[in-house]
Amino acid sequence: MKTTIYQVDAFAECPFSGNPAGVCLLREAANEEWMQNVAMEMNVAETAFAVRRADGDFDLRWFTPTIEVELCGHATLATSQILWETETLKAGETARYHTRSGPLAAAQHDGRIQLDFPANPPHPVDPPPGLLEALGVKAAYVGQTRFDYLVEAGSEAVLRSITPDSRRLRQLGIRGVIVTAPSDDPAFDFVSRFFAPGAGIDEDPVTGSAHCALAPYWAKRFDRAEMTGFQASKRGGVVRVVLDGERVKLAGHAVTVLRGELKT
Fold first, then answer.
1. Which residues are catalytic?
2. Judgement on whether residues 42 and 136 belong to the same structural domain of the protein
3. I need a surface site. Which of 117, 152, 254, 261 has the fewest CB within 10 A?
4. Tell me: the pLDDT tens digits for 141-190?
């Protein structure tokens, strides 16, 4: 049976920006090897696979071209865009997901899609051997979350200049490294970049799950819960964040750029 597949630019206000994600809405749970092969074929940071449950919620899984991941924000935002666009969900209806990271939700809010994700605050650690050398920076802070290291660079200019050694980062044995700094642009509170060679992605364009760590980190520094971040990759993307206790609300736009049909 043929399966429709979409490509959506998430955390983007126009095509060819933000972070592209593949989205498959499945009639029933699929074979894991098949999903991994589809993600490899799509060759974007993540491809999401959603299956509707009897209770109306969705089982949701995410795959990079090389591995399955436990949490992905931009592909969840992309999936939600397709659920409303295809009228699988009615306008205004909340999308509820069951995932390897627990329950997640998405709602239409103030013209954006707002995700409800678990907060993942970093705790300070000594930098592991090779981390700062691989990034080529001096760190104002180094922390670790459930998935990644978080490094505060000295400035936005330093952050934008980083050309990391992906081979050395891959040897750290973690998903990735979030690098962040205060923003020089008054339109944003902080900037970030995300390098995940351990997951097969040298640099991710816009990373929702990284903002589950960035929100509590900068909320503590700025002493406020609502902020706007800009991920300063080549494609770039804006993520509005609200820290709400042990949850983080992540909001952004999405643009569908491709609709196709898998013949296998």
1. 46
2. no
3. 261
4. 999 999 999 999 999 999 999 999 999 999 998 899 999 999 999 999 99
